[in-house]
């Protein structure tokens, strides 16, 4: 019997992360799950075990805090060493209008969505590069493609993250390590529970199908659902005056 | 907070009215919503597969459980499965292929209703039944224990040993005793996941009752389709279906909700007298019918034929439809079913789907469990307003006269008086209603203010 796929997930209790994890559990994967709430991690771990996971280890800590990195990496090494797939799925939407008035909160939004992922991806990338295989799957956002009045702090972080991933992809390609930049549109999750939902909204399950398919294929950038590629093509190319008037 | 219309929250799409819908992601958030100090009436809401107003609360708040969809534990030695309340029976069935039992078979849900896209919490709150009621009884009979969040902030563990009265009130309790957070189910060993299926034409109602009796001992699943256009001596003409598991086979897992779906309710329903006639004529004459003509099917094809068309309820058009399911006890079951079918035929309101089956003699699992020994008939009627409601009232009169009752997972309009007459334990049940829980149905039945 072939050895189980080793999957690490940073931010494992998010709705999208849980949906992705279930797909790998159905393949009998081994998991290392990191997240903030130990209770929620235990719920997710129990769920994946029933769904076919070969093993599930968890580690609770605030991923935005650099002070916790060493403990996280030690726990991951103890669980299964360098993973075959690392999914980075944590993030916060922030609150644009509040954060504009509070530079410390604005900085925290950048810290959680850009600085922390970069900090955690660098050692993982180096380990996969040394081994000569692996997939880094990172959830960015369509919000990172053009600054918009309503969410340009979150957008700046995600845009910076996508630029980092583009460079990292080229660095790791010779080693056979894929870097997948996932750009979801509107996803119906607890993070967006206060938004009014419309036809553009997708379920975490649909997004997870796209993420797993992209990870399997080692694709560079994946828009999910697919139509966001075309929506963003239009939005990126709107003249500035039009963009200003649209008030997006 | 999102306000949603009742027509998008109940399967029959015939109950307008706004309600707040919240969708907690974790059990403790759900429990906190159940105990919210705001006096707003609250109610758990699952996958929205109840037809009438049972899972609605216009002006109130629904706590949607579909994000509480995690498995908690499964023990392959005992076949006991614990899940959060929003797990779909479909999610459970997707796992079954891996759950081998001790004697080479599989652990399988003992009771499955006509759709697999219902939540565990909903299956308990309606004490649902399947085509094997004569052998396995209702869903509630296989619930080992459950956890209930009450509005006073308490969590009650309920089972036959712990809080047994609250347990019996919650099974089939229409969601009124609190919010079901988690439950443990006893699965049954199934020798295989393919079914041996047989479909036998029946000439009339006598044919149905003879086949039902003959099949009771050896066939796990039975149900008949009845052609509502037949009248006179042909009343009850249709096809009797029966199926039983074949030992040894591993069937493909049931597919996800089909991409082929009905996206919108058309302004004019394609289900009319003409298409109804064509459908029923084709259904009754399709090839493969006949005694001894056995077909081998994966269980989901036999048990959930309508799940193959996503959103089929929208086919009834913008006004929605009513499903009417009743049960009538044995002494007059045959005569009453004949009278019911006669009333439908006389009204010229043929039902697209008329399903007839017998229930076995089992002690009910809950205080308000629907099944009783006898025959159950389910009919769909497009909502034509007063005309449809008048027909359903005529059916009610026949059912009550016979000592039967209607199923509240389906019904959306019967009054309090009929309810009290047909559910004799209603007063005992009422003691267990959580004072802050209420639904459109509980107000209609005068169970809550």
Concise overview:
Chain B: Residues 14-190 form the FAD-binding PCMH-type domain. The complex is a heterodimer of chains A (248) and B (449). Chain A has 248 residues and is an alpha/beta fold.
Care to describe what's here?
The complex is a heterodimer of chains A (248) and B (449). Chain A has nine helices and seven strands. Chain A has 248 residues and is α/β, with parallel strands linked by helices. Chain A has one domain (6-245): Rossmann fold (3-Layer(aba) Sandwich), CATH 3.40.50. In chain A, strands 3-2-1-4-5-6-7 form a seven-stranded parallel sheet, sandwiched between helices. The mean pLDDT of chain A is 95. By secondary structure, chain B is α+β, with helices and mostly antiparallel strands. Chain B has a domain at 194-413: Alpha-Beta Plaits, CATH 3.30.70.2520. In chain B, 25% of the residues lie in helices and 24% in strands. Chain B is built from 13 helices and 19 strands. In chain B, 50% of the residues are buried. At the A-B interface, helix 2 of A face strand 5 of B. Chain A: It comes from Tistlia consotensis USBA 355. Chain A: One of its GO terms (cellular component) is membrane. Chain A: This is Short-chain dehydrogenase. Chain A: GO terms for molecular function: oxidoreductase activity.
């Amino acid at each position: 019997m072939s050895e189980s796929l080793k999957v690490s997930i940073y931010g494992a209790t998010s709705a999208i992360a849980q949906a992705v994890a279930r797909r790998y559990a159905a393949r009998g994967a081994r998991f290392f799950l990191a997240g903030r709430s130990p209770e929620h991690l235990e719920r997710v771990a129990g769920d994946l075990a029933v769904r076919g996971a070969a093993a599930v280890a968890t580690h609770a800590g605030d991923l935005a805090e650099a002070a916790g990195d060493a403990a996280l990496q030690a726990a991951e090494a103890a669980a299964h060493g360098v993973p075959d797939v690392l999914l980075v799925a944590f993030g916060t939407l922030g609150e644009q209008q509040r954060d504009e008035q509070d530079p410390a909160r604005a900085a925290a939004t950048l810290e959680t969505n850009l600085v922390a992922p970069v900090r955690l991806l660098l050692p993982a990338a180096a380990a996969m590069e040394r081994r000569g295989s692996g997939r880094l799957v990172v959830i960015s956002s369509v919000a990172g493609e053009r600054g918009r009045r309503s969410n340009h702090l979150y957008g700046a972080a995600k845009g910076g993250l996508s630029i980092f991933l583009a460079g990292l992809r080229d660095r790791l390609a010779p080693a056979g390590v894929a870097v997948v930049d996932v750009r979801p549109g509107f996803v119906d999750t607890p993070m967006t529970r206060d938004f009014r939902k419309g036809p553009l909204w997708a379920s975490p399950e649909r997004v997870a199908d796209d993420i797993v398919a992209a990870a399997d294929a080692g694709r560079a950038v994946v828009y999910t659902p697919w139509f966001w590629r075309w929506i963003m093509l239009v939005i990126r190319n709107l003249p500035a005056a039009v963009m200003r008037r649209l008030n997006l | 907070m999102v306000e949603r219309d009742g027509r998008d929250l109940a399967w029959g799409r015939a109950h307008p009215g706004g309600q707040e819908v919240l969708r907690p992601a974790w059990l403790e958030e759900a429990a906190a919503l159940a105990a919210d100090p705001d006096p707003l009436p609250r109610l758990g809401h699952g996958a929205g597969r109840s037809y009438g107003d049972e899972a609605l609360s216009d002006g109130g708040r629904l706590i949607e459980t579909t994000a509480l969809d995690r498995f908690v534990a499964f023990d392959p030695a005992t076949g006991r499965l614990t899940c959060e309340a929003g797990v779909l029976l479909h999610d459970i069935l997707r796992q079954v292929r891996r759950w081998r039992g001790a004697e080479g078979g599989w652990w399988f849900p003992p009771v499955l209703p006509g759709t697999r896209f219902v939540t565990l919490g909903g299956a308990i709150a309606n004490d649902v039944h399947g085509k094997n009621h004569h052998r396995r009884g209702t869903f509630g009979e296989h619930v080992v224990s459950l956890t209930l969040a009450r509005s006073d902030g308490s969590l009650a563990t309920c089972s036959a040993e712990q809080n047994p009265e609250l347990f019996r009130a919650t099974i089939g309790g229409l969601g009124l005793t609190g919010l079901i957070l988690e439950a443990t189910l006893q699965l049954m060993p199934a020798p295989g996941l393919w079914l041996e299926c047989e479909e036998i034409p029946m000439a009339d109602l006598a044919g149905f009752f003879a086949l039902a009796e003959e099949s009771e001992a050896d066939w796990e699943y039975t149900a008949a389709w009845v052609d509502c256009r037949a009248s006179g001596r042909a009343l009850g003409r249709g096809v009797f279906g029966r199926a039983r598991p074949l030992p040894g086979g591993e069937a493909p897992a049931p597919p996800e909700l089909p991409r082929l779906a009905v996206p919108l309710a058309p302004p004019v329903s394609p289900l009319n007298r003409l298409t109804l006639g064509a459908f029923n004529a084709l259904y009754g004459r399709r090839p493969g019918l006949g005694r001894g003509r056995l077909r081998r099917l994966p269980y989901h094809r036999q048990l959930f034929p309508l799940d193959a068309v996503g959103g089929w309820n929208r086919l009834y058009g913008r006004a929605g439809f009513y499903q009417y399911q009743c049960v009538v006890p044995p002494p007059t079951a045959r005569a009453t079913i004949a009278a019911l079918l006669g009333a439908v035929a006389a009204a010229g309101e043929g039902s697209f789907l008329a399903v007839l089956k017998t229930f076995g003699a089992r002690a009910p699992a809950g205080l308000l469990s629907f099944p009783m020994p006898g025959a159950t008939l389910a009919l769909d009627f497009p909502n034509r307003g007063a005309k449809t409601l008048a027909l359903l009232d005529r059916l009610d009169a026949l059912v009550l006269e016979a000592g039967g009752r209607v199923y509240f997972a389906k019904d959306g309009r019967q009054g309090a008086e009929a309810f009290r007459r047909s559910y004799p334990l209603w007063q005992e049940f009422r003691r267990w209603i959580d004072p802050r829980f209420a639904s459109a149905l509980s107000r209609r039945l005068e169970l809550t203010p």
